Amino acid sequence: xxxxxxxxxKLGITISVPAGTRLIEISEKVGASITYGCREGECGSCIxxxxxxxxxxxxxxxxxDKVLQENMAGRSDRxxxxxxxxxxxxxxxx
Amino acid sequence: MKRAxxxxxxxxxxxxxxxxDPGLREFDIILKTANGTTYNSYCVRxxxxxxxxxxxxxxxxxxxxxxxxxxxxxxxISTIVLNHLEPDxxxxxxxxxRRAPQAKLYISAKAQLMLKALVKSTDLQFxxxxxxxxxxxxxxxxxxxxxxxxxxxxxxxxxxAEQGILFSGDVFGCHFCDDRLFNxxxxxxxxxxxxxxQHIMRPFREHVLDALELLEPLPLKLIAPxxxxxxxxxxxxxxxxxxxxxxPLLHNEVGANDRSLLVFYISSxxxxxxxxxxxxxGAETIPGVRVSLYDLQAGGDLPFVDLIEEADGIAxxxxxxxxxxxxxxxxxxxxxxxxxxxxxxxxxxxxxxxxGEAINMIEDRLRGLKLRVPVKGVRARLIPTDEELDQCRNxxxxxxRHLTGNIEKRVISMSxxxxxxxxxx
Lengths: 94, 425
Hints:
The complex is a heterodimer. By secondary structure, chain A is of the alpha+beta class. Chain A has helices at 23-30, 62-70; strands spanning 3-8, 13-18, 47-52, 77-79, 88-92. Chain A has a single domain (3-92), classed as Ubiquitin-like (UB roll). Chain A contains 2 helices and 5 strands; from the N terminus they run E-E-H-E-H-E-E. Chain A is globular and about 30 Å long. Chain B folds into 2 domains: 8-246, Ribonuclease Z/Hydroxyacylglutathione hydrolase-like (Metallo-beta-lactamase, Chain A, 4-Layer Sandwich); 259-419, 3-Layer(aba) Sandwich (Rossmann fold). Chain B contains 13 helices and 22 strands. The A-B interface holds A 5, 10-18, 21, 26, 28-36, 70-72, 94 and B 109-110, 112-113, 342-343, 364, 367-368, 370-375, 402, 407-414, 417-418, 420, 422-425.
């Protein structure tokens, strides 16, 4: 199964995960400060900044794109509950 | 007090048209209101149009419309500004828009979501404004200032440039009801002003400081907030007070490059206390970290909240009693909503008799407050062994390393992560 390496900058830990894993599944396990919220891509509380490797992330869905725009998120922001890692190396600010 | 006033002119052509709610004793569950509150809204008349700034709570809409009708006809209203969409300011908006359908509505970008949730209309028309935008009413110019998170993401302030009047929304407001309206005529409202800041604005103090940078240079003659007295006597002193309140409360003796770790504990038989001591000892071995140790039984929540506001990391030690952390721990943790704690580091530890649930429960609460909980907590059955005390020292060390950025970078697999207890990599 294809793997992706997700590094949490502030925690100093890299997790090797199966492709298709959502960021929130990893961030909750490593103790990053992203937990609650709707978990359905509506509230925007899990917005997470991707430092590098955005090309290895799933495309924004219409819903995610809408919520990010409403929250005036930047191009490096994603919703942790929606964004999936597809492979390669990804670094997040958390 | 005498009968509620009619519309009150606060400057030539500009009127207060809000509503008084003297009977209110509790606002939004969290605030006590000893003599009620006011919902302030205002009407600004220019030569080319009339603007209404904010509305009132729905229950007080009749009072608001009565005062508005004293100073303007609905067909004259060209502009409606909502500085903040909370229902106590937007309650009368749908009816106002129905009565003045020609009026253009001006809100901040973040207010869109709330507007759509409040006004269930498919063809809602509105204009998004930000700092630098303005609306010309003819001889009266409304200038907008984006001041987000005071105390909602949507908040903004609006200035009448020619009159030096700042419609500040909830900022510089308070829950105090007095029909004499102006700060130089009402009763003593200092307590209400401070209380309101502490409970509404304090969690957003970084945003308060950002807003002050924007607002302090303005040539203001009057601040007209959305609650409480209108500040016409020494208005800038209220801004100065905000700056004082938003600045760090404590003289922090931790060096500029040092990090502060607070270790709180409560202990029935001294076991959790010994663990706390070990956590502190471990943390102190890492240069650049200043550790403080506090017994929760001997302190008050509010002083501890002040300490936590300034700290970089907090660790809680609690015994498990009846499957739960003990009440003083929860009391302090539930008090943290009044300050900004996100992105601080958190940890938990404690002694237990049978099950030891307290540690995970505290960690969950810390994560819920958006703290990072990077190091697995330590549990010890009754009297901690030397090995368990070493684990506590290691917990302290690891926390201190995270605080100083001196962490050992690790690579692990998802399956390894899952087999560990939740949220402890």
